[in-house]
Design a protein that fits this description.
Helix content is 66%, strand content 3%. The relative contact order is 0.15. By secondary structure, it is mostly helical. It has a two-stranded antiparallel ribbon. Helix 4 packs across helix 5. It is globular.
Length: 119
């Protein structure tokens, strides 16, 4: 995948994610995931799992959300702060906060996960 196309798909995913269109974000990022190698592949998969987890949460499946966020955090543990303009650190922090709330029996807010616009 051409670098400019890859970056555009990643940014489209970020924009969809921040509109709370988590399934669509997952689709954009999956296009990239299918074309790259590790370690970037693992990190993009982590972003996909955060998006999918939040999609499940919004559809009444906090149990599946928690499972996916746990898997995502394992993949994002050594990820850079940003990848192709996507705020990976923000995804990681938000996922940690949502997961902690779910594990503590609290109801998280989807607004806790937000990806800053990065250069």
């Amino acid at each position: 995948m051409d670098e400019s196309v890859r970056r555009e798909r990643m940014l489209q995913g970020r924009e969809a994610f921040n509109r709370r269109e988590f399934y669509e974000a997952h689709e954009f990022w999956e296009d990239v995931w299918n074309e790259i190698d590790d370690p970037e592949r693992r990190w993009v998969q982590g972003l996909i799992q955060v998006a999918t987890g939040m999609h499940k949460f919004m559809n009444g499946r906090p149990d599946v959300c928690a499972t996916l966020l746990g898997k995502a955090l394992a993949k994002l543990g050594d990820a850079p702060e940003a990848l192709d303009g996507v705020d990976v650190a923000g995804a990681r922090r938000g996922a940690e906060r949502v997961l902690a709330a779910l594990q503590g029996g609290e109801t998280p807010r989807v607004t806790w996960v937000w990806l800053k616009n990065l250069p």
